[in-house]
Every structure is written in C-alpha cells, then in structure tokens.
Amino acid sequence: MKLCNVRRALATLLFLASALPAFAQYHVVGSITTGGSSCATATNCVVQNIPVDVGAVSFTVSANGGGNTNQFEVSEDGVNYVSVNAFPPNSTTGVTSSTANGTWTANVAGMQIFRVRCSIYVSGTVGVDSNASKAVSVSSLQGSGGGGGGGGDTITSPNSTLNVGGTSSATTLELAGSAGEIMAGATPALTYTPTLGKSGTAGTLSMFPSSGNFTTTWGSAATANNTILGFAMAPTSGDLPYCVTSGTTCTLTDSGVLAANVTTNSSNYTADGVIYATGNHAAANTAAGTAGQPFKSGGPGVAPTYQSDNTCAATAASDQISAAGAFATTCSVPNTNIGVGTVIEVFFHGFYATTATSNPQMNFEINAGGTTGACVAGSSSHNISASNTNGTFDGVCRIVILTTGSSGTAVAGGGTTVYLANGSSSTYFGFMNTSTFTFNTTTSETISLQETGTLVSGQTINLQSLIVRVIS
Question: What is the CATH number of domain 27-134?
C-alpha cells in the first residue's frame, strides 16, 4: 500500500514538471551546424531562456572559420524576435550580427529569450558560450543603513559600462570608462566626443556664471558639418579673431589687429582710387585718376583728387597785337589746386616782326590772381632789333602763394628772352617784382599775358602758346 502511494506521488510530480515552461538558464553552451530564417531546425540556433532577474548576456562565438553569418536576437513574448545590439568589451560600437569569432555583451532586461541564429551557413561547426548576468536592485545598493523591504527598481548596465562592487557594508557603483568620458548616444555609451541634439532638434549647452541667475547658451547654426577649434592661447584684449581653415575645420586665431584701429567705409571702394581718412576710423576713396596725374590735397574738409600739373595749355594760330594791350589767349586756374606754398608756373611763347622803323620795343607782364602785373613789366620798354621777320620770344613767370583767401598774397619772378629770326643772338629782360601782391585763392583765376610798351609802325607780336602749371 505504501509503495503504491509513492509511485502515485512520483507520477504526479512528473506530470507537473512536464506542464512547466522551459527553465531559465544562466549559462548556455551550444553549437550551430546549419542555417535558416528561424530556429525550426534546432541546429540553426543556440537559444538561452532569460531569467527574470537578468539584465544582460555576455556570449562568445568561436570556431566560425567558415565565415557563417550569425544574427543576435531577443524576444519579449517568446514568439516574435528582433535584432539586439551587442557590444565588444573594448568598443562602444554595437552590432546585430557578425561573420567572425568574438565576445559581445547585449542588454536583455525584460526579455524572455536570447538567441544566436545562423542566417547564412557556409561550413563548419560554430560554438556559442553565453552567460547571463543579474540586474542590480536599488535596494541591494542601499547597504546596511538603507530601509527595509523587498527589491526596488532594477538598474541594468548599458553596454557593460556599470561596475557594481564594494564590501558587505558599502556598495559602490561606477562607470567602467576612462577619465573624461561621458554617457551619450542613442544607445548610451561612454565617449570623449558626445553629440547634443539630433537632426531636426537643436542641441545646446547652457552654463551659469560664478554668480547670478542667468546663463550663456551655446548652439550651432550649421548648414554643413564643420568643426570649430578654440584659440591656441588667449588672444590679446581687443584683438579681432579670424579662422585658419583646413578642410571643414576652423581654428580660431588672434589676428593681432585691434578692433579700435579698424577703419570702415559705408560703401565699396572704387577700383584704382586712393583711400583717405574722413574721420576717426572712417574712410572713403577717390575716383581713379588719369595716368601720370599727381594726387593733390583739397585742403581741410575737402576731398583730395587726382589733378594734372598742366591745368591749362592754350594755343593760338593768330593771336596778334600791333599795339600795347593783352593777348586774347588766356588760361583759367581752378582754386581747388591752390594752397599755401603752391607754385604756379606760367610759360609763354610766340614770334614777332619788325620793319625798318627804328626803336621797336617789347615789355611783357603777367596778369594773375585778380592782379594786373602779377609778374611786373620793367619801368621802361626794351629795344629789340629792327627789320627782323619771325623773331621769337620765350618767357616764364613763377608765382608762389604765401597766404590764401580773397586777399591772399604771393611773390613772383621770371623774365623773357627775345631771339632774332636766325636765333643767333638774344635779349633778356626780367620781371621787376620787389614785393608781394594780392592773389585771390577763393575762386578760379584767369591768367593772361599783355604788352605794356609802345609798338612802332609795322611792328607785330603773335602769342602762340600760354601754358600754366600748378605745382602743389
């Protein structure tokens, strides 16, 4: 009777055991010799049932000399499988499959099954050795000083970056990375190069000062990938920075140029013009000048310009006089060319004719600056040769401006040389300036040549050219 009862009890236990789900496995060793899209053929996979207290599995694939493609997969319901990222111990880059040997760790918290499935079989026997590691309970980290009660929230080590250690009286939890690394990424991992934000969502970094309830926020306005590197050393206070660019990387660099010394212009500069200051840190530029023209100041408050030295060059084919008086040919001098120290050179040339009538005369003077006789004629006329056809004369008057204004002053000097028709002999007479004279610099002035002597019968004088050059 007793023996019968024992047999009945054993049968009941075996029946109950057959009705239980597959038992949880902390350590699984298996091999793969075929491949397929599922584990319907058992030799396609090595399967590990995950205990409820497990947060990760670490597994090694070996003897994969044939280059078989092995997939790493998990299932939450025991039916549907998805790929899972697995990480080598020395890398933060996850993979979901491999054709090589290696060791990886995968996060399986909350999953029922982890498996390695051969999706493409080539040859050989692939070995799989998988170990499950328990998740860490918050309550187990509280130590002897913590509150009582059952297990708390579960802490799972992402990518094997958490190490739990310590003693029976003091539990430690540390990140298993190098100094200076932080957690970042869609699948969190330790890195020296974190990226804030994602496509379509800006990443920013805000920082508080040592005091005050306000922040500085750093962000990006990039429209293409680029890198900004900081200064090699602190720039000099007030200096402008600039980029030394290599590829897509800009290194901020001290230009050595003080911002306070920068001159600005409200519009573009004219090509071939000259830049000049219009005030403190402001500039403009002139129009381009004609080849050979000098650059001249316009005086206080007036823009400088390119100007010709030869402000006037007048010629005449028939500007003739036969009695005392001014020639019709004149030159006008712009007042913008004239300042203190300006030299005005007046050159004139012409020819004359005399008959047998005795004592022909010549005595020129230059009118300029509103003054008749700026270069003063002699007190008496000078005799020239009679019976001389097509004799010539050349003269120069040099005026130096001493002061400016409507009653400006100047000094002058020069003379005239008279040649015979054959050029064999000459007569020279100078302008008789002994004092300053008035020269109006506020307006354009007409310069002319006139004869002051009394011409004899049959005597004529022709002015061919009058040239005025202003030298500032």
Answer: 2.60.120
In tens, the pLDDT along 22-74 reads 456 899 999 999 999 999 999 999 999 999 889 999 999 999 888 999 999 99
pTM of the predicted structure, to 2 decimals? 0.43
> Would you list the domain boundaries of the chain?
27-134, 136-191, 227-260, 275-303, 310-471
Question: With helix as H, strand as E and coil as C, how does the chain read?
Answer: CHHHHHHHHHHHHHHHHHHCCCCCCCEEEEEECCCCCCCCCHHHEEEEECCCCEEEEEEEEECCCCCCEEEEEEECCCCCCEECCEECCCCCCCECEECCCEEEEEECCCCCEEEEEEEECCCCCEEEEEEEEECEEHHHHCCCCCCCCCCCCEECCHHHCEEEEECCCCEEEEECCCCCCEEECCCCEEECCCCCCECCECCCEEECCCCCCCCEEECCCCCCCCEEECCCCCCCCCEEEEEEEECCEEEEEEEEEEHHHCCECCCCCCCCCCEEEEECCEEEECCCCCCCCCEECCCCCCCCEECCCEEEEEEEEEEEECCCEEEEEEEEECHHHCCCCCEEEEEEEEEEECCCCCCCEECEEEEECCEEEEECCCCCCEECCCCCEEEEEEEEEEEEECCCCCCCEEEEEEEEEEECCCCCCEEEEECCCCCCEECCCCCCEEEEEEECCCCCCCCEEEEEEEEEEEEC
62-95 pLDDT, tens digit per residue, is 998 889 999 999 999 999 999 999 999 999 899 9
CATH topology of domain 310-471: Jelly Rolls (2.60.120)
